[in-house]
């Protein structure tokens, strides 16, 4: 035989549901704020990396092939750059 369900005062149920909804909304707001902060941080990191890459690229006005060969980053230099970056833990 199924056990009888306890009767709950409708007002109490509504209040509980409203409190739960407010909690979920607060958590949602915190999560959105954290995500926006992470996006801003990643955008800044991306700008910094682009700047660093521009520093090791050869200038387009250079016509000296030897100079170009010396300034083009090789795979080891790019790997070294990535080793110096913080691990995002993803």
One letter per element, helices H and strands E, the order comes to HHH
Number of strands: 0
Largest sheet: none
Rounded to the nearest angstrom, the radius of gyration is 28 Å
Low-confidence stretches: none
Number of helices: 3
Number of domains: 1
Give descriptors for this structure.
90 residues; mainly alpha; 70% helix; single chain; 3 helices
Helix-strand layout with pairing:
Elements: H1 10-56, H2 65-71, H3 75-83
Protein name: CCDC92/74 N-terminal domain-containing protein
Coiled coil: 25-52
Keywords: Coiled coil
Write structural notes for this entry.
InterPro entries: CCDC74A/CCDC74B/CCDC92 (IPR040370), CCDC92/74_N (IPR039496). It holds the Pfam family CCDC92. Keywords: Coiled coil. This is CCDC92/74 N-terminal domain-containing protein. The chain is mainly α. The chain has one domain. The protein has 3 helices and no strands. It starts with 9 loop residues before the first helix and ends in a 7-residue tail after the last helix.
């Amino acid at each position: 035989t199924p056990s009888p369900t306890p009767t709950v005062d409708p007002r109490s149920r509504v209040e509980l549901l409203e409190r739960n909804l407010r909690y979920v909304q607060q958590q949602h707001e915190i999560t959105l704020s954290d995500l926006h902060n992470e996006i801003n941080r990643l955008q800044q990191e991306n700008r910094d990396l682009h700047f660093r890459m521009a520093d090791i690229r050869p200038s387009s006005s250079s016509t000296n092939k030897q100079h170009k060969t010396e300034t083009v980053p090789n795979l080891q230099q790019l790997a070294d750059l990535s080793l110096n970056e913080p691990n995002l833990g993803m």
